[in-house]
Amino acid sequence: MEKPAPGILLIAEPFLKDPNFTRTVILLTEHQDTGSLGFVLNKPLEYTLEDLIPEAAGLKLPIFSGGPVQVDTLHFLHCHPDTIPGSRRLVDGLSWGGDFELTLSLLRNGDITPGSIRFYIGYSGWSEGQLDAELEGKTWLTVEAKRSIVFHQPSGDIWKEALRLMGKEYEVMTNFPIDPQLN
């Protein structure tokens, strides 16, 4: 298991009951002594970018719920750190944020493809020591992020694919029921 840091995936343990995080995978983008921040990768919403941003007319890119914190904010992950100024590199081939107006222009012109960028409303956040306590309590499994997981289609398979990244001993968890009492 990896220590929490930018570019690490948090994979919800199979029986986590919190409805915000059941069977989710979160990409950590910040981890500091004062707290942590990341985005749920596998909770698509019924909106597209053009539904939310008038300047994005014609861009029917899906929007995902990044988490329950500040759901009035929009964030994006992408594979274009050299093309989108202001990006923050997380791991090889994966960056967070940058110049939004230029990003819209690059999408419209076809200079970046829809499959190499994802948009999120809100984020997942932890206060000082909270994530470390959750990790000690085995709420999350951790592994280094891979671009193929962050942009995986269909997004509903991300949790299972992230567990497979961890190896055979974790792959068996992909078949666990959400609530073993219903078995």
From TrEMBL:
Q: Name one GO cellular component term.
A: cytosol
- What highest taxon heads this organism's lineage? Bacteria
Q: Which InterPro entries match?
A: AlgH-like
Q: Which Pfam families match?
A: DUF179
Family listed: Belongs to the UPF0301 (AlgH) family.
HAMAP family named among the record's database cross-references = UPF0301
User: What name does UniProt use for this protein?
Assistant: UPF0301 protein EDB95_1257
The lineage is: Bacteria, Pseudomonadati, Bacteroidota, Chitinophagia, Chitinophagales
